[in-house]
Specification:
single chain, 207 residues, mainly alpha, 2 strands, globular, EC 3.2.2.20, DNA-3mA_glycosylase, Adenine_glyco
């Protein structure tokens, strides 16, 4: 039997799948990063599992997370989204997603890719934290504070230090799997197959 992270609710099969297949795995392609940014900003004030259950609906509502399509959404799209029971019907959060898509594109223009911009905050290589007990988990860090501050200056909304830290964990910038979790070392072993330096030199990579 596999040992998994202590925060994981083992009664939820979809949560287990997310933990085993996605959480903490380095994400280097912009479409997936925009998906994670969108879902994390929607989570603010809610549980991640609530958003995970709505993930498929978000994917449909926001054009498979096509950032250009989302950035072009207007008033009629907003009305349609506010009537979509599959997503969090918070007008400010929905407006933030459209706003964040525009800011996301600006970063792509200035940095070549959002991946290149984002990964600079960990010097283009994952941080591996030592997690032995619940007290070793953090809700934010100096890096997430700096990342969130920079995002805010660039116009992003609903992405404070705590939300950004969760984003960094989710997309593998920070490996916060428990030391006893079977996925921790598996993900660390995968690093040798990833050319992280290429994120900086060539921009976005699709894995």
């Amino acid at each position: 039997m596999c040992t998994r992270c202590m925060w994981l609710d083992l009664s939820k099969e979809d949560y287990i799948h997310y933990h085993d297949q996605e959480w903490g795995v380095p994400v280097l392609d912009d479409r997936t990063l925009f998906e994670f940014i969108t879902l994390e900003s929607a989570q603010a004030g809610l549980s991640w599992y609530t958003i995970l259950k709505k993930r498929a609906a978000y994917k449909t509502a926001f054009a498979q997370f096509d950032v250009k399509h989302v950035a072009a959404m207007g008033e009629q799209d907003l009305i349609k989204l506010m009537n979509n029971t599959g997503i969090v019907r918070n007008e400010k959060k929905i407006q933030a997603t459209i706003n964040n898509a525009k800011a996301f594109i600006e970063i792509q223009r200035s940095h070549g890719s959002f991946a290149s911009y984002q990964w600079q905050f960990v010097n283009y290589f994952p941080i591996v934290n030592q997690i032995m007990s619940k007290i070793d988990y953090h809700s934010q860090s100096e890096l997430s504070v700096a990342f969130a501050k920079d995002l805010k200056q660039r116009g992003f909304k609903f992405l404070g230090p705590t939300t950004v830290y969760a984003h960094m964990q989710a997309c593998g910038m920070i490996n916060d799997h428990d030391n006893r979790c079977f996925r921790k070392q598996q993900i660390i072993d995968s690093y040798k197959n990833i050319d992280f330096a290429a994120i900086k030199s060539r921009g976005c990579l699709s894995l």
